[in-house]
Design goal:
Layout: E1 2-5, H1 15-22, H2 28-37, E2 40-42, E3 45-46, E4 58-61, H3 65-72, E5 94-98, E6 102-107, H4 124-131, E7 143-144, E8 153-159, H5 162-173, E9 178-186, E10 193-197, E11 200-203, E12 212-215, E13 223-231, E14 235-242, H6 249-257, E15 279-287, E16 294-298, H7 304-310
Parallel strand pairs: 8-15
Antiparallel strand pairs: 1-4, 2-3, 2-4, 5-6, 6-8, 7-8, 9-14, 9-15, 10-13, 11-12, 13-14, 15-16
Length: 313
């Protein structure tokens, strides 16, 4: 019988949900059958799946060797870089803040947040695995609490502990995070400040891996405040505050306004050098998951924004 003594990292979650993450190759039906039969126990006793785990509890597993091998494999499996492979220097994120529960990084354009972008190891999750940051248990590995498009630069918040990730995820889900962006757009909006309030609908276009989001009555409510900070010859620098967190919200809203982001060809913008958009997540404010204290982080816009504003990008 294999035994696991639980730490604070596992505390608070339901026993059945813990088992689903621990026994990730076993079908849910098989897990529940073994739970009922007593092959999966807590502190030597049969336990209901709804029991909330506490640090110091001992999980006993009476399972075949093949299933125990998955448990012994450590943190949840996910694509990781091969030995010797590293993210190129120009794509490595800059650490803005780090403690035991959260990490805030400044992501360069071109770095995906998660795998699936077609570049196996050029994503933030791979970098986290390379750095071996945060708590790692058989059921938890550090992960971003939200996403930025690969071409967008700026701040990303990562949960380094289960409590940190739960708190961050809840804050983004409940729209209690203040998100401030800056973007260089084509033309100058009139009026120079206002609110774009238009529902957004995700449309899948044949031949495109990336979704296209359009203003459509069938979509979800979305609201973005904008203000012109600086005028260029044919472009302008905008500050934007998101009140909702829809897919491609800023990109779709600015295209709807008639002022697409420089570099955002997918939404009608003119091409720019490199693979980035002139869109930057410059400020995040949220309650710290452990202390509840309101914390604010900021990152300066890339140097390329100045060239785009001058019209020389």
């Amino acid at each position: 019988m294999h035994e696991i003594t639980l730490s604070e990292a596992e505390a608070g979650q339901r026993f059945d949900r813990y088992l689903r993450k621990l026994l990730r190759t076993m079908p849910l039906g098989a897990i529940m059958k073994r739970l009922r039969s007593g092959d999966l126990r807590l502190d030597g006793k049969k336990a209901d799946g709804s029991v909330r785990l506490q640090a110091g509890m001992v999980v006993q597993l009476r399972l075949p060797e093949a299933d125990l091998a998955v448990v012994a494999g450590g943190a949840p499996r996910r694509p990781v870089p091969k030995v010797g492979e590293r993210i190129p220097a120009e794509l490595r994120p800059r650490v803005v803040f780090r403690d035991d529960d959260i990490l805030v990084i400044d992501k360069p354009p071109g770095l995906a947040v998660q795998s699936g972008s077609g570049r196996e190891n050029e994503h933030l999750v791979a970098w986290l695995d390379q750095q071996r940051l945060g708590v790692r248990t058989p059921t938890f590995a550090p992960a971003p609490a939200h996403r930025l498009d690969r071409g967008t630069s700026g701040l990303v918040a990562v949960g380094l502990s289960p409590e940190g990730l739960r708190g961050l995820t809840a804050a983004f889900r409940d729209d209690t995070v203040r998100k401030v962006y800056q973007a260089v757009v084509q033309g100058v909006p009139e009026p120079e400040s206002g609110t774009i309030s238009a529902p957004l609908f995700v449309r899948t276009d044949v031949g495109h891996k990336e979704p296209k989001v359009v203003v459509d009555a069938r979509g979800k409510e979305a609201r973005t405040d904008y203000e012109v900070l600086q005028r260029g010859k044919k472009t302008s620098l905008l500050q934007l505050i998101l009140h909702t967190g829809r897919t491609h919200q800023i990109r779709a809203h600015l295209a709807h306004l008639g002022h697409p982001i420089v570099g955002d060809v997918r939404y009608g913008g003119k091409a720019a050098p490199g693979e980035g958009l002139c869109l930057h997540a410059m400020e995040l404010t949220f309650p710290h998951p452990r202390t509840g204290e309101t914390v604010t982080f900021a990152a300066p816009v890339p140097e390329s924004f100045a060239a785009a504003l001058r019209g020389t990008a």
